[in-house]
Specification:
His-tRNA-ligase; HisRS-like_core; alpha+beta; ATP binding; ATP-binding; 458 residues; 40% helix
């Protein structure tokens, strides 16, 4: 058999122990904040029926679904004519796909388990998702999402708490160097966007408008206007948008302008009222969120959003959005459960990982899980070390014994390579006296201590 050079699919990554320690720092931080705000964990399968996934993300999203071929002779149900039309072929050879996000599977879960859940139901979910996208910096084909959703309530308290959770997560991720990550929490409301489309005289073209305007920060104002023309908007309608592209000032100033701009749109006014309520609740909390910015051009491409939408972007690192979400009112409708409103947020772990790496924000001790290594000099001291090891572990100290009493240099190199902060050296003298050599690997100091004294260091 010829040797094969190992590789992994484009847009995926391996993570070794050092990387996983950093990832767990991110995941554990987010998880603790979610739990603090009353969210409980669930998990759903990696694959879903395509009937669940398709039609929920808009045309562009549907094209990025990874589809799974049916097992067995998957071509047996097809005819030659099917090969000429992919729309006819696909349902016959593929019935399942990898999940594109965690929100649609969550909506499916809620409908299937509605009689066992207490509403409003608040869940968090931390699992990988897959998108057949073109890989580039910060964009992967397999990546983790950390979602929190509250479903079964239309209270704007949920939106306000999402803002507070975002702020708290990013504060906790910067404990090593406070305020070194500059970021903005962008907020808007899809009803406001629908109101803008009404003012443009293009009612019914909300989706086309949202898809185009969502690309503003990537392609710029002129290209967005060109795309709107391509999508059938009149030049006179596009000219109406001009004041919005240059809209600035405080959140209060922008809301006041929009109230006048959307005066003839009932739906737009409702969106403004919802945003005002979010800001009022945050004021009642006594919260200071200088990162929160109203951005009337924020659209978020996913078609299921119906109310408030959020996006977080770093300001001092070149990276796309690292967090996003919004309110959706009709997502469970397609699964047979109407009139259930939900709102959620998702942290992009893989992008946050890269941002923290670039800014060197990981805590010093994130590299190693082992706190102390026991180094032995001979067979007798190795056997004695087993009892020491057991005492350490019984005290919930993460400890290792080097598997064999090889040369001291090799064992100490192992401790250095794994960045283990402490080493206990055990030789014949230590076995005889019970006084163990306890070395601090960071500053090089060492003491002869009994095991009880060593335990007090942790």
């Amino acid at each position: 058999m010829s040797k094969q050079k190992p590789s992994i699919p484009k847009g995926t990554r391996d993570f070794g122990p050092a990387e996983m320690a950093k990832r767990h720092f991110i995941l554990d931080t987010i998880k603790k904040v979610y739990q603090k705000y009353g969210y409980a964990p669930i998990e759903t399968p990696a694959m879903e029926n395509l009937s669940v996934l398709q039609g929920k993300y808009g045309d562009e999203g549907d094209q990025l679904l990874f589809k799974i071929l049916n097992s067995g002779d998957f071509l047996s149900k097809t005819q030659e004519s099917d090969l000429k039309d992919s729309k006819l072929l696909q349902p016959k050879i593929s019935e399942k796909g990898l999940r594109y996000d965690l929100t649609v599977p969550f909506a499916r879960y809620v409908v299937m388990n509605q009689h066992n859940l207490s509403f409003p139901f608040k869940r968090y979910q931390i699992q990988p998702v897959w998108r057949a996208d073109r890989p580039q910096k910060g964009r992967y084909r397999e990546f983790y999402q950390c979602d929190a959703d509250a479903i079964g309530t239309d209270s704007m308290l949920c939106e306000a708490e999402i803002v507070l959770m975002i702020q708290e997560v990013f504060k906790l991720l910067q404990t090593k160097k406070p305020d070194s990550l500059e970021y903005a929490i962008k907020i808007n409301n899809r009803k406001i966007l629908s109101g803008i489309v009404e003012v443009m005289g293009a009612a019914g073209k909300e989706t086309d408008f949202a898809v185009a305007i969502d690309k503003l920060d990537k392609i710029g104002e002129e290209k967005v206007k060109e795309e709107l023309i391509e999508r059938g908007f009149e030049q006179s309608a596009i000219d109406t948008l001009s004041p919005l592209f240059s809209l600035s000032g405080s959140n209060k100033d922008q809301l006041a302008f929009l109230k006048d701009f959307l005066s003839n749109s009932e739906l737009g006014q409702k969106g403004l009222a919802e945003l005002n309520e979010v800001f009022d609740i945050l004021d009642s909390f006594g919260a200071n969120v200088p990162e929160l910015e109203l951005d009337v051009t924020l659209a978020r491409g996913l078609s299921y959003y119906t109310g408030a939408i959020f996006e977080v972007k770093p300001q001092n690192v070149k990276m796309g959005s690292i967090c996003g979400g919004g309110r959706y009112d009709g997502l469970t409708d397609t699964f047979g459960l109407p009139d259930v409103s939900g709102v959620g947020i998702s942290f992009g772990v893989d992008r946050i990982y890269d941002v923290l790496d670039e800014l060197e924000l990981y805590p010093e001790n994130s590299e190693s899980s082992t706190q102390v290594l026991i180094v032995s000099f001979d067979d007798e001291s190795w056997k004695y070390s087993l009892k020491v090891l057991q005492r350490l572990r019984n005290a919930n100290i993460k400890a290792e014994l080097y598997p064999e009493p090889v040369k001291l240099k090799k064992q100490m190199k192992y401790a250095n390579d794994k960045q283990i902060p402490y080493v206990i050296l055990v030789g014949s003298e230590e076995v005889k006296t019970g006084q163990l050599t306890f070395k601090n690997m960071q500053d090089g100091t060492q003491d002869n201590l009994n095991l009880d004294s060593i335990l007090k260091h942790f």
